[in-house]
Amino acid sequence: MTEPTSPAPILRIEGVAKTFGPVTAVDGVSLDIRENEFFALLGPSGCGKTTLLRMLAGFESPSAGRILLDGNDISPLPPEKRPLNLMFQSYALFPHMTVRQNLSYGLEMERLAKAEIIRRVDETMAMTDLTPFAGRKPDQLSGGQKQRVALARALVKRPKVLLLDEPLGALDKKLREKMQLELKRMQHEAGITFVIVTHDQEEALVMADRMAILRDGRLLQVGAPEEIYERPADRFVANFIGVMNFVEGKVGADGIFEAEGLRLALVDAKPGPATLAVRPENVAVGPPGERLAGTVADIAYHGLDRVLHVQTAAAGTPLQVRVPAGTATWRIGDALSLKIDPAKCRVFSGDTP
Ligand code: ATP
């Protein structure tokens, strides 16, 4: 899949592949990343996202293809010569140094003037809310604070692009959610392009301006979170991002999708065998007898709303339907009917993956 060319890609990945012996980890990926973008590489374990990130950083060299930064081929450059910085999953902080010393170290190696080092470290500590911890050592910090030091240490060098490999992987759920928003704010304030690797789709949806979905080393789709959520390119992406119901059936010459107990008029559907895909929030529940008949098989409470699992004749597995909590008091075993919004459905014909 190729991407429409954008005015100023800071990073251009051109037909990049990487093989390790018989394993193809990355399989001909072409992708543009724009300046100041928060870009996420997302996919299941083993899809090649870390390998792609390591090639951007220069720790692996591509078996084929080129990587351009600001239009210049950086493929031959070693990691330390690239204006990119990789933040490691393990924070790799110096345990015997304070926060300030951890941040200053890289700049001292670059032989910057002392006053400049102090200025940049102060500025970066303020941005990452670390000023109160300047004198502490890593073992006197919480997980979230250590994570911020690792980020600050990467930011203080002012790379053009910061590469982050599962940066929030070590944090518990609550802190992770807090840090997702903080990371986005810091990216914005620093004005640096972030490329982040994650296998967590919610994390990518929350943080990314755009994201790429990878599977088996191949690029399946690139787009803004809402584009990918609302118009997934294939069944895999539809299933990987958020919750999706699938109904197998066929589209007639009249454009009507049919499955047992269900007839739905669709626009732009190719006649033939097809899969209808609909999100739980795009199915409405009504009294029995109106539309697709079903029986409540299970109810999951999610605070603000509830998800009904409704068994129908149209699909083998129960369809998930999101209803606001408190609007209706359905019980397991109740008969009801489902109304699917045809404008919010995706239809995958038999020949799409
Ligand atoms: P995870 O989320 O589990 O880290 P990933 O999407 O980042 O997965 P990669 O680590 O890029 O995936 O690995 C992609 C494929 O390449 C896997 O099949 C992996 O086993 C293989 N691979 C990665 N690095 C090497 C290596 N150095 N030698 C051999 N095979 C490798």
UniProtKB/TrEMBL annotation:
Q: Which SMART domains match?
A: AAA (SM00382)
Question: Which keywords does UniProt give here?
Answer: ATP-binding, Cell membrane, Membrane, Nucleotide-binding, Translocase, Transport
SUPFAM superfamilies tied to this protein: MOP-like, P-loop containing nucleoside triphosphate hydrolases
What's a Pfam family in this record? ABC_tran
Q: Does the keyword ATP-binding apply?
A: yes
Q: Which reaction does it catalyse?
A: ATP + H2O + polyamine-[polyamine-binding protein]Side 1 = ADP + phosphate + polyamineSide 2 + [polyamine-binding protein]Side 1
What EC number(s) are associated with this protein in UniProt?
Answer: 7.6.2.11
Could you tell me which residue ranges the ABC transporter domain spans?
11-241
Does Signal show up as a keyword for this record? Answer: no
Q: GO molecular-function annotation terms? A: ATP binding
In terms of domain of life, where is this protein from? Bacteria
Family (UniProt)? Belongs to the ABC transporter superfamily. Spermidine/putrescine importer (TC 3.A.1.11.1) family.
Question: What role does this protein play?
Answer: Part of the ABC transporter complex PotABCD involved in spermidine/putrescine import. Responsible for energy coupling to the transport system.
- Record's subunit section: The complex is composed of two ATP-binding proteins (PotA), two transmembrane proteins (PotB and PotC) and a solute-binding protein (PotD).
Q: What is this protein called?
A: Spermidine/putrescine import ATP-binding protein PotA
The organism encoding this protein is Shinella pollutisoli
Name the gene that codes for it.
Answer: potA
